[in-house]
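Cross-check.
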Amino acid sequence: MDNMVLIFIRIVACGMLIGFSASYYGAFVVQRGMSFLGNGLAHAAFGGVALGILLGSEPLWVALPFTVLAAIGINWLKEHTRLAADSVIGLFFALSMAMGIIFLSRVQTYSQDAMTYLFGSLLSVGMTNMELYICLALTAITICTFPLWPRWAYSTFDRESARIDGQHVRREDYLLSILIAVTVVVAAKLVGIVLLSAFLVIPAAAARLISASFAMMTTLSVVIGVFSVAIGFALSYQADMPTGACVVMTQILVFALMFAMNKRGIRWPKEM
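Predicted model, tokenized:
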């Protein structure tokens, strides 16, 4: 098989796997009104990437613990202060960006890695199998969390009742935030930090417009996330345009379609 075909297959596979995980977790992010979390963690990843470049290490392996620590810090500060979630996320957003800029200012030579992580790159992902293995591992972890879906859904709609029923709500919140952080870091190199939060928010927001239940919203979010990546990648390849931007524009078109369906009173599945 032609080498370019293999590269393209790897790229599309990585993108669809990332789309699967991001849109699955995105359903909880949107329903909980925490859309800013994706943006905050994406910019936390930028700080980790910049530190990796400064240290001369693979940015991915530095950004991963850096972003996970940011996710833990956001949850901890929410619990121990009276600050609203968006205020805490904004604090870490600013801190990570400031640290990233300082780290990059100490790098003596121009780094292509910084631009790759900021805006995404198809070729940087498709040249080796490593990224594909990482995406497969992320998807496997996501599938393993399916049994937690009812518990996360319960605490999403009624935290107090979930806590009274013996659910470890805080512990599960930490786990969800950590998994979102891992997804954000894995996706950063492919779609870019600048547009990364859209992968979490837009498919879930579109699905919410026509879903009659949270289970349907989650399912439809995943479908939109996966197929918008495939269509966006094809457009990016054919038109020679940035990957992340093409995927996000595809997601926006799907959102517009769902909005039109919502205005016509279409819900799925139809209520009896």
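The two ends are 51 Å apart (CA to CA). The CA atoms of residues 206 and 256 lie 8 Å apart. Passed to J.P. for a second look.
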